[in-house]
Design brief:
With 189 residues, the chain is α/β, with parallel strands linked by helices. It is 46% helix and 10% strand. The longest helix is centred in the N-terminal third of the chain and has 14 residues. NADP nicotinamide-adenine-dinucleotide phosphate binds next to α8.
């Protein structure tokens, strides 16, 4: 199905009142711009693009997706915003994930991968103490500070959901946002 056909079919549904807004996922900057232009002819906004985005996955910045979304007024829903739990700080070389889970195939959870993120996790812990928050909340708040970004963290239980909701309603100081941006530069590519 072409982008033209898909967006026009979705626009028809908005006009029929069967859906309220239109969102896409994993669209590149070009795909997002194209979808936005097709919908603009029908006076319908492209509301969201759901993309992988966290302190440990910043490719959407280097690929121009964040800038294009800001230019076009499209909200980015950041999926895997805690890097599957890595940014909570609970997985370390001393406390690796369960060896029977899917994470054992992800190099970021290997001993080497966990050692590489140590400086970032140490800074998250430091900021967590400074703001009386958790490293997960600091990581999610950094995403909120990017502007048109809404993180959608996963939660395995009510405590995690409650903790993640506590990432809202306050803001990291700009200097601390910049500090985390600097430390996570290796994950821009
Ligand atoms: N559009 C797409 O292509 C796409 C792709 C992937 C995901 N998604 C969506 O994105 C959402 C989240 O993705 P994700 O599960 O990969 O995200 P994530 O938020 O990076 O990781 C979630 C995992 O981290 C741990 N966790 C979460 N909150 C925690 C807390 N406060 N304290 C300690 N541990 C915590 C939990 O696992 P443990 O307790 O086991 O550590 C949880 O399952 C989901 O809705 C998913 O459907 C979309």
């Amino acid at each position: 199905m072409t982008q033209e056909t898909l967006m026009n079919a979705l626009a028809d549904e908005v006009e029929r009142g069967r859906i309220k807004t239109i969102g896409v996922s994993n669209y590149s900057a070009d795909e997002m711009r194209q979808a936005h232009q097709i919908l603009a002819r029908r006076n319908i906004p492209l509301a969201v693009n759901q993309v992988r985005y966290s302190l440990l996955s910043r490719q959407i910045e280097s690929q121009g997706i964040l800038a294009t979304a800001q230019e076009l007024g499209i909200t980015l829903l950041a999926y895997s915003p805690l890097a599957q739990g890595l940014l909570t700080g609970k997985y370390t070389t001393a406390n690796p994930p369960q060896p029977d889970g899917a994470r054992r195939f992800d190099p970021r959870f290997s001993a080497q991968g966990l050692a590489k993120i140590r400086p970032l996790l140490d800074q998250l812990q430091h900021l967590a103490e400074k703001y009386s928050k958790t490293p997960a909340q600091i990581s999610l708040n950094w995403l909120l500070a990017q502007g048109n970004v809404i993180p959608i963290p996963g939660a395995k239980n009510a405590n995690q959901a409650r903790q993640n909701a506590g990432a809202m309603g306050w803001s990291l100081a700009p200097d601390d946002v910049n500090l985390l941006s600097d430390l996570s530069r290796p994950w821009l590519s």
